[in-house]
Hints:
Layout: H1 13-18, H2 20-34, H3 44-63, H4 73-94, H5 97-100, H6 102-105, H7 114-143, H8 158-180, H9 185-198, H10 215-219, H11 224-234, H12 242-267, H13 270-273
Helix pairs in contact: 2-7, 3-4, 3-7, 4-7, 4-8, 4-9, 4-11, 8-9, 8-11, 8-12
Amino acid sequence: MIQPSGGMFEVPLGEIWRYRDLVWMLAVRSVSTSYKQTVLGPFWYILQPLMVTAVFSFLFGRMAQFQSDRIPHYLFYMGGLVPWNFFSETVTKNSNIFVENSQIFSKVYFPRFCMPLAVVLSNMIPTLVQFGLFLAGLAFYLLKDNEWTNPSWLIVFTPLVFVQLAALALGVGCIVSAMSRRFRDLTYGVRVGLQLLMFGSAIVFPLTRIAPENRWLFFLNPVVPPIEFFRLAFVGRSLVEPWHLAMSAGISFGLLLIGLIMFHRADRNAMDTV
Length: 274
């Protein structure tokens, strides 16, 4: 009989650690098969963010005349897309774990949370590539002595941005995955919701365009403070404050805890309902 160990609210963290090699193998497999049998292959890691940045720069920067706080358009849009893409891809891939892996789950037992962890690791590869493209643009503007490009010592804390976004994405993804085994519509709803959420996450316009009395609504979105901190560290302009980051971190790790519990509970009878 294939069944998880531990109680309904007991997350088997020790067991997950013993299967860390499996997590790594699943992540490597995901990366190697992402663009298998495609003409450009891994070059899509480079082309995709560049094309989106170019479209945003043209539509919102040139045609719609959205201001970017005088930050060069490339740095403004890419500075938002790098953390956002990591978050949205992790949520999307984790939102249907039980359904997509039902054939594996029904044949062999291993801690199911290894799958979401592998998704996080595999998504770090395109994120690192996009981060490299962002750094290349940053170096270009620094060499041009752009007065609105001022990196600061806060750069040393930017890895924590992706730690928080990973926690948030894991939490949201696990919650949706636990529920989508019964309600398949949630998978499609997540994709639409993420597209809408992007426009409320300070990706295409700066928060300075929002009336001061309404900005708190945007900072309730836990994705906004880490993205704004990322821009603050590398470009030097942002409205984010320490309490915004603290509140966002609290929400992120709170959702991660809820997601872990719901995911483990769903694991106990997932194969009976998928």
